[in-house]
Amino acid sequence: MALGIFLVILFNVFVLSISDQLPTNYEYYTSDGISSGLSADQPYFTLNGKNISIYSGAVHYFRVPRPYWRDRLKKTRAAGLNTVETYVAWNLHEPQSGVYDFGSGGSEMEDFLHLEEFLRIAQEEDLFVILRTGPYICSEYNFGGFPSWLLREKEMGYYNVLLPILKDYQFTKGGPVIAFQLENEYGYVQPDDNPSESDYLEKLHEVFVGNGIVELFVTSDGISSTGLRGTVPSLFLQTANFGSDPEGNLNKLVELQPGRPVMTMEYWIGWFDYWTDDHHTVKPDTSKDLYERILKFPASVNIYMFHGGTNFGFTNGGSFSNNQVDNSGFRPITTSYDYDSPLNEGGDYTDKYFSIKELLEKYNPVKTYVPDPPDLIPKIAYPAVSIKEHQSIAETLDKNAPYTINSETVIPMEKLDINNGSGQSVGYIAYRKENIDLKANTTLKIEGHICDTAIVLVDGVLVSPVLESKDDIGGFGYWHLEDSTLVINTEEKSNATVDIIVEEWGRVNSAGLFQYNKSFKGLWQGDVFLNDEKVSDWKIVPLEFKKDWTDNLQGWSEKISYNTPGLFKANLEISSEPSDTYLDMRKWTKGLVIVNGFPLGKYAKIGPQQALYLPAPFLKKGINEIVIFEHFKANDEYYTSDGISSGLSADQPYFTLNGKNISVYSGAMHYFRVPRAYWRDRLKKIRAAGLNTVETYLAWNLHEPQSGVYDFGSGGSEMEDFLHVEEFLKMAQEEDLFVILRTGPYICAEFNFGGFPSWLLREEQMGFRTSEPTYLKYVERYYNVLLPVLKGYQFTKGGPVIAFQLENEFGYMQAGDTPPDTNYIKRLYDIFIENGIVELFVTSDGVLLTHLKGTIPNLFLQTANFGSLPETNLNQLVELQPDRPVMVMEYWIGWYDHWSENHHTVKPNASKNMYETILKFPASVNIYMFHGGTNFGFTNGGGLSNLDVDNSGYDPITTSYDYDSPLNEAGDYTDKYFQVKELLEKYNPVQTYVPNPPDLIPKVAYPVLSVEKQLVLSEILDINAPYVITSETVVAMEKIDINNGSGQGVGYIAYRKQYVDLEANTTLKIKGHICDTAIVLVDGVLVSPVLDSKKDLNGFGYWRLKDSTLVITSEKKSNATVDIVVEEWGRVNAGVITQYNRTFKGLWQGDVFLNDEKVSDWKIVPLEFKKDWTNNLQGWSEKISYDTPGLFKANLEISSEPSDTYLDMRKWTKGLVIVNGFPLGKYAKIGPQQALYLPAPFLKKGINDIVIFEHFKANGERWKSFQCYNNFFPFNMSLGSLLLVALNIVVLSVSSDKLPTNYEYYTSDGISSGLSADQPYFTLNGKNISIYSGAMHYFRVPRAYWRDRLKKIRAAGLNTVETYVAWNLHEPQSGVYDFGNGGSEMEDFLHIEEFLKTAQEEDLFVILRTGPYICAEYNFGGFPSWLLREKQMGFRTQEPTYSLYVERYYSVLLPILKEYQFTKGGPVIAFQLENEFGYTQSGTPAESDYLKRLYEVFVGSDIVELFVTSDGILSTGLRGTIPSLFLHTANFGSDPEKNLNKLVQLQPNRPVMTMEFWIGWFDYWSDNHHTVKTDTSTDLYERILKFPASVNIYMFHGGTNFGFTSGGGLSNDAFDNSGFEPIITSYDYDSPLNEGGDYTDKYFSVKKLLEKYNPVKTYVPDPPDLIPKIAYPAVSIQKHLPIAETLDKNAPYTINSETVIPMEKLDINDGSGQSVGYIVYRKENIDLKANTILKIKGHICDTAIVLVDGVLVSPILNTKKDLDGFGYWRLEDPTLAINAEQKSNATVDIIVEEWGRVNFANINQYNKTFKGLWQGDVFLNDEKVSDWKIVPLEFKKDWTDNLQGWSEKISYDTPGLFKANLEISSEPSDTYLDMRKWTKGLVVVNGFPLGKYAKIGPQQSLYLPAPFLKKGTNEIVIFEQFKANDELNFVTKPVWQTV
């Protein structure tokens, strides 16, 4: 032990021990000296002989600024941890080969590298240390810690330098290091069968031991997967890495290492982030639970990460999402390594920190001194700094190139000869080509994949696309694309300079062993071309951003171009000691930030990280230089870049803001109409449309709900959560929006009382909207509270508010000849000025009528409100206010609705034209409304249709304030949104950053709810009256003395008369008009008429009647109680000045009479439905009377985070809905609104209480429920649609034992229409339907099993089955058709009419996907192979030959299908034409013409059902469809919300459907078997259902690729078959029904979810019993027919040919060629020299075996590696030595197999999918072979059944046919053939080719259905290509294994 260290430690321990009486860690474990280190030789750890549990936290010294090491280590110890763990990063410590840096080495990162200092500080802070020394560390660090110069193959001596440093810091030497980890997660890369890698670990161990390292050695791995594969148990203790299932992992350790300690080396308490992903977090409760379970086990544990820190500079890593070596699967990791750790990136405590501290106090058995957590390091938000200087990247390359390397070709950065021969490791590399002439529209092509990102400039101008969203990562400039192309100019250029600047965005840190060697960065995978001409002679410039270089850059300019990539400089001046801060990069695009010469880190607007942590140690007192290398568009804080000197000015003909011209492009959104939780979402969407401003009113009645009582967000009112106006203003500014505040006092806005508080009506004198003193007194009092709140948010004070509107449409206030009171608005102006408001003041009016009557021109700018005649209105403004700006304050892009009217809309094209006219004028404009929102609760207003003051002209406004706006009521995009965005991009002269529109907020249709309890209205009044006021007469609600003397403002008021004797036929009379509606009850029974239609508004109970009367009894009643319950349905918001004083609510215009006798002595009960009152109601009953007015309660239970929904109120009559105590809003069956928007923030996880106050009749027509919808258009447009929906609901009400079938439900009244997609939801025959479909292909399932599978599909709750129609099966030869009796080999599968009938009989609808192209992983994607015989064949285009055959086929198919359409009484509800066409369409009009022609062919054949297309819409958009003809649907297997929201965006107001939800996946031969976990698929399916969307599960039952029907893929764009990937025989697809039709867990998950989410209840049968499977006894091979003899004696045809030709070109099958099977090329009578070399030019299509004189000479297929050798498609020009000795008159047979024709390819590849040998000649010793005999082997039934020459002498090593007989004595059963002991070939059962097998897997068994067998003898023939087995075995389950 070094004495210095020892003294420091003793002093430390001594001081600690005095104060707390507890020893430190070091005192406890070293009090008697040090005799031993950490021991793992027993089931627990000991340290120096004492028991220890290691409680560690990971902190990586290289991710934390050196001055903060002590702070972070103090905090680690203060949490109760006793150890810190860190990796050691080789790439930092040896940045150049042989050049080391341990703190003073001069590298760019040297200040992070004082490793010895870190170890000393850890010891001083009483922590032990675990060192994880690599060489590989992973750690999400660049190259996993490897130096990039290793890619140059340098010598290595790293450990011989590192270990002598570390040696003295070992615990047994007096230091802190108690353990060394060697390597990391090594088990993931070491194969099971390769022991040589353990030699590597042993060698590392020897190196450490040889350098004096004696502490415990450990390894770590994901042991649940790797076991002990990545360790050497005799040398290392294996530890575990995991983030879940602690018991499972720890028990595994106990099992693997009995009698040894158990340790978690990485407990993942959070997770890291990739760029473009969402930010990862783990909830504190979850992490706490897992940590406690580890501690309780008990186990030692290292928290990974305890403090993640930062990937400063270029140190972030990346990973690969695939096994390729071409960077195509690259995923870069963010700069932040926050990891959701206990200490966040900035070192601050999180909840997790204190959870850990609490648990360690509880579980640590060793009590040592633990210090208190230190104070946090303060953070500060420095003032914004402006960009001062700029240097374009082109100028950087011209003037500041650190090196220029000339190179013939592009090369990777690692190969550059710089940095002492170590190459370039990080940064950027620029490839420059100078003095080049470019033709117009020159195309740049970069071969291979870019590593990692690239921007392209021509003559310094950016020509590559800007990174706007994560979707752009799939395009040019990024790693995903192979052979990416870009048009780089539109006009011809001479002597141009082209720069390709490639970024290294993090070298992979986790990969397959073979991938590390290919992790070069830059361009290296191929050449660069311009117009197909290879470019050479490059100048290459490495940009490493080293400090010396950055600090000395020349050529900075003060002229700044924000749209030009380059360096941008700003100076941050700090006058005191610096503090930590974060750089907010949200307004920048992508790049690198450098602070005082140090590269801080990368940023990218695609997120998730939007800020960069900037620690104080990187700053200094004084001037700090911040340089940003921006790839695309820099942030120009356009209007404030030089500070703020002035606000919005209207003193000239145009607006200026802070001295710069501005056009105000605004959108209206009222904060009080949108849930606070959604403010940011709506503001983001407003900004993303290109608007620069948001406008809102301020509602006085909300902010002063009672006189003198104010609420700005925490005032306790019922609406308080909507009223945080300051938060709204801050948020608008954060989202880059200015604000126009329209502050009233009168706002109109279709809001209750136009924003006035109702308590104003209590004043005897109240001169609304005048300078009358009482009114002004209250106005001034309100403004004196409001304006101090707003004052600090003015633009000139640094806030967002650029203008204040006072009053609203004041010009209309003229009464007769009396003009508006301008003294009043002058006083308003003065009040604002007195309160420090200095921004622009405006007024607004309908200027064509009011001119300037409602304004004062020298104080206000007048603006205009209109919805038509834009030029007339704007010219009027110019005339009225010459030389002033022109602005539209309200451009009415839609309109609001009154109850009982039709829903108002303005066609998008009309609104677009009007908006464009305004922009072109040009004028500033506010779109009213951009997002209307909702009149929640009682906030809706009303109009007056006359000038009377008696309420007779009343028009109540709906709850929805949708307004037909660009963002609808729920915040979803409409067509208008994108039209606005398009026009602003065109007309806005000021270009500022506009973000992409955010994703939509998902909506869900919750299950139907039953009403559970009722509280009748009379009992509410009896036992729940909040107040009872006794009054001689009826009085208005505003006059009641409640709410602190403010009266009643909203709700209902009940007038009760008790103990009254009523004669028979007593007449009730109410004098005057009712305000607004009334219901009457006698002894609790409703006696007033029900509101059934809008005509009823003219009768009793409504405002239109004066002195209304009602007979309330038919018999005499004694001591009766009469209740008149009057509703305030929205106080008038717009009227003439004389009407405001008469807007009382209730009964107040006269007395009430019974038989003409005035009634007095009333009890008055106000019902305001305040939350506390509603939540505490008493007297609920489970006995429900649906015809009695009252409250009805239902509970909505939500198990996950709530989603938006709509309440469907169509079966209720009229009333109010209350959700969790909050009045959601009014409903009324008279419409137009039929649904209530229910936002997620009003709901909660768990039980949600929904109460409905129904005035008349509740929903009780047997279906005693109501329903939640999403995407439900909340307005009825016609009575017809309403009736249809009502019928739908009535049918649903049938009890479960009498439920209708699908067909009964949808066709009970006949069939008048089919499936409609003309609204946001599907209807079928006029009734709403969600399509819940499952895919099952009739041609993949034995006909005898169709009914079984269809029964199972229906029993799962699905209502539809989807199938493709396969052209190649139905027209197997040109012009020869088979639909079930056509005589083809597959005829029994082809009875399509029978399939359709069976589906209908099993109560399923059908979706037919009719091609012609179907993909489907089916042979040739469904195309007949005989199409390849044509010289000209334009697959999937309008090319005439192709079109001819397509139309001929359809002329036969469609007349068959025509009669099975739904509208003709059949099951087919939709036809899909083509498939995933967007992937092949080149964008030329021809392709859409092709789709259009297909459509015309179908329509011309009387196909009338819905037409659909389907695609991967995230990539293809609408490219593969024609929206006017087809409904586009989506195919995907992940991210449902993104896909479905994309559909909503692409097809607004149309149904959303997933045509293919990939619930599993298919398999290629040699791959592993693909599965998708049931939990995963269940979650995804539920998210689709919740969206909600219709959905087809692909596949619900996959079935089998019987015979030769399997398809194949192509992994490249070549035409030579080199990328071929054959698909297996099984099409199991990991489906709900497996290949054998058995149920899987997924089946029952689907069934359960459909029971939950399907709103339509129809009869669903029980799942049928399974079809039994049996393992028949093994059968022996009885006969053999060698392949040579098969050819000799059984050739079906022999074709003589000069050259080899493909099978399709053979003149057989009536001129259709050979489609499937094998083709034999035989050369006879040839003399072979010894060691003759056979050479086949080109690629084999697909596999080949070679025999010489009947003896196999080609290699056997043993493992998938053999596919790379002779006999397979991957090799070009393969060669084979075919004999060792000379042979005379030999026969050479080359037998080529068609192993599945490609089903998915580029459009230009289909023409080259020939099979056999066709790409070139065949040579023997370089001599071309000719005169071939060609024999096709199609394995047709007649041929197989009649083979001659079978022998009982069997040679199992000779390729050929092997026969066995299976005797079955009873009815056959399903079984599986176990083929594991066979090699490769084909099985034929009773003459039918069952399918292919191959030992390479993954499929090792063949499904053999009972219908293919028979009672008696079954003949099984196996064509084995290599080595046969002597018997054939059977199993009951499929076998999967990849060799």
From TrEMBL:
Occurrences of domain Beta-galactosidase 1-like first all-beta (ranges): 423-544, 1048-1168, 1713-1834
Residues covered by the Glycoside hydrolase 35 catalytic domain: 45-362, 655-986, 1322-1652
GO BP: carbohydrate metabolic process
UniProt key word Cytoplasm: no
InterPro entries, per the entry: BetaGal1-like_ABD1, BetaGal_gal-bd, Galactose-bd-like_sf, GH, Gly_Hdrlase_35_cat, Glyco_hydro_35_CS, Glycoside_Hdrlase_35
Residue ranges constituting the Beta-galactosidase galactose-binding domain according to the UniProt record: 566-624, 1190-1248, 1856-1914
Family matches, as Pfam families: BetaGal_ABD_1 (PF21317), BetaGal_gal-bd (PF21467), Glyco_hydro_35 (PF01301)
Keyword Nucleus found: no
Documented EC number(s): 3.2.1.23
Reaction(s) catalysed (UniProt annotation): Hydrolysis of terminal non-reducing beta-D-galactose residues in beta-D-galactosides
Gene Ontology molecular function: beta-galactosidase activity
UniProt keywords, alphabetically: Glycosidase, Hydrolase, Signal
Family (UniProt): Belongs to the glycosyl hydrolase 35 family.
Listed name of the protein: Beta-galactosidase
Organism lineage: Eukaryota, Metazoa, Ecdysozoa, Arthropoda, Hexapoda
